[in-house]
Amino acid sequence: MLNKLKLKIPVFASLLQPSAKAAVDDLLVELRTKFQTLDVEPDFRIYSQPHIEPASFPEVHRSAQYYLCLIATGGTESLCVEYASMLHKRAPEKPIVLLSQPYMNSLAAGLEARCKLVYETKPAYLFHTTDHQEMKNLFTVLRARDYLTQEGKQVGIVGHPSDWLVASDLETIGSKSEVWGIKIHDDIINLKEVMKAYQSTPHNSSEVESIVRYFISQDAKLSSLRPGDNNNLWLWDNARFCVALSKIVKQYDLFGLTLRCFDLISKKITGCLAVSYLNDMGIPCACEGDIPALVTMMLSHSISGQPSFMANPVHYSGKHLTLAHCTIPTKMTMHVNLRTHFESGQGAAIQADLRNPDKPWTISRANLWENVMNCEEVIARNIEAKSEKRCRTQVDAEFKSEEQLLKYLRKSSGNHQILTEGSWVKTFQLYKKLFIHCLIIQKAYLPAIVFALTSKAVSYTHL
Fold first, then answer.
1. Predicted local confidence at residue 437, as pLDDT
2. What's this model's pTM, rounded to 2 decimal places?
3. Half-sphere exposure of 47 (CA within 13 A, CB side)
4. Distance between CA 199 and CA 176 in Å, rounded?
């Protein structure tokens, strides 16, 4: 899904440390070997010496997506600060990433340089290269950011957000051409365009038949369905809508979208299968026109490489939160049962169980007007006795405690929550630190600074 991440690593070393070159060479070989999805350009060395001029710095090459400043030895703080400041001036939307290694006073110099940059209100963060998990998270986040901000790609809003999403509409989050670096198509895409594509798609087209086979392969009871039987046209009609929405994705070159789906009910179809199908195909798709949910799904997809489940929180008791919706991507599931849509009894919806339950999952939702990412790790479990008074797919999310669950709900910025397989909380938090905090820093004149030193990564937290 994602291309190699192009990095450049300028190295700052003191001439008083002749052994620095060998240590740096070994470190770069280790990084290239351990993280083979990196495209690390040949590094250049900036050695400390008397009266060096900033003009003698090597040119900042545009081919590199990110610069990671490796402070190899002590005595290089001034050079690093000057060079990092030059990088920030040329690309203020990107964080300044500093690296340290375990020898030659590298960490001490990194702390000093980072402190000066933060004092100057620049978003600087320091990572210790021997913490392999934190380095992996760093590269995952940088790669995700590169994917979300790639040139020429955009997300679409098909139909306005549903009327009841009063905290998730354009007016509330602010009508913007981009959100968190993700470009939004200039205009609301009229739902009539999708319906026109739907009407022009015949039942017997190869695209429709392919999607019908896709869903029949997952629900054994449907294997006897044939398109000639008028009683069974519901599946073909919903597959036609999958094709129509896919055409809109291609027409506008979208890599994500959100759909005002309830307006389809009057046409005896629903958007549930189309939302599920596009997510299965690697195109994050939210329903009801929910924009914060879409942004969360885009971020989750770019980090985890997986589809995610957008769901309503419908009940909580103790440390358990019940989630339910009709649009779960079938790649996440087993025991698929295609049924009618819950609220309307029309069209088609998905009732299923999680394929990998009883393991850590991540629940999350983006707060776009406060630039906050609310996320927690939960244990996701299937619910055997599914209620007929809730949306079709139902999941139990177990938090670590009742207090944690209540805190999560209090911080939630709206209805739909996003459930993703795996433990991604630390990666989400790192993305927030590197890129969402940059938005806050750029808007603030006097940012508050809290010094935070952890065993994982050394960083200043900007509030």
1. 73
2. 0.89
3. 10
4. 32
**Cα torsion angle, 444, 448, 451, 455, sign:** negative
SS3 string, the chain, reads CCCCEEEECCEEEECCCCCHHHHHHHHHHHHHHHCCCEEECCCCEEEECCCCCHHHCCCCCCCCCEEEEEECCCCCHHHHHHHHHHHHHHCCCCCEEEEECCCCCHHHHHHHHHHHHHHCCCCEEEEECCCHHHHHHHHHHHHHHHHHCCCCCEEEEECCCCCCCCCCCHHHHCCCCEECCEEECCCCECHHHHHHHHHCCCCCCHHHHHHHHHHHCCCHHHCCCCCCCHHHHHHHHHHHHHHHHHHHHHHCCEEEEEECCHHHHHHCCCCHHHHHHHHHCCCCEEECCCHHHHHHHHHHHHHHCCCCEEEEEEEEECCEEEEEECCCCHHHEEEEEEECCCCCCCCCEEEEEECCCCEEEEEEEEECCCCEEEEEEEEEEECCCCCCCCCCEEEEEECCCHHHHHHHHHHCCCCCEEEEECCCHHHHHHHHHHHHHHHHHHHCCCCCEEEEECCCCEEEEEC
Query: Mean per-residue pLDDT for 276-297?
Result: 96
Can you name the residues that pair with 337 across neighbouring β-strands? 351
Alpha-carbon gap, residue 317 to 29, rounded angstroms:
51
Whether 419 contacts 362, CB under 8 Å: yes
For the record, the structure tokens of 284 come out as 């994050």
Q: What is the token pair recorded at 12?
A: 């700052």
What average pLDDT does the segment 214-240 reach? 81
User: Per-residue pLDDT averaged across 302-306, rounded?
Assistant: 96
Could you tell me if 351 and 388 are in contact, meaning their C-beta atoms sit under 8 angstroms apart? Answer: no
pLDDT confidence of residue 291: 92
CB 311 within 8 Å of CB 419: yes
What's the length of the chain? Answer: 463
Q: Which residues contact 406 (CB under 8 A, 6 or more apart)?
A: none
> Which residues make beta-bridge pairs with 322?
315, 396
Higher pLDDT, 406 or 340: 406
Give me the residues paired with residue 183 across strands.
Answer: 178
Structure token pair of residue 21:
């070159």
* Amino acid making up residue 379: I
Tokens encoding 138? 């760093």
Compute the mean pLDDT over every residue in the chain, rounded to the nearest whole number: 86
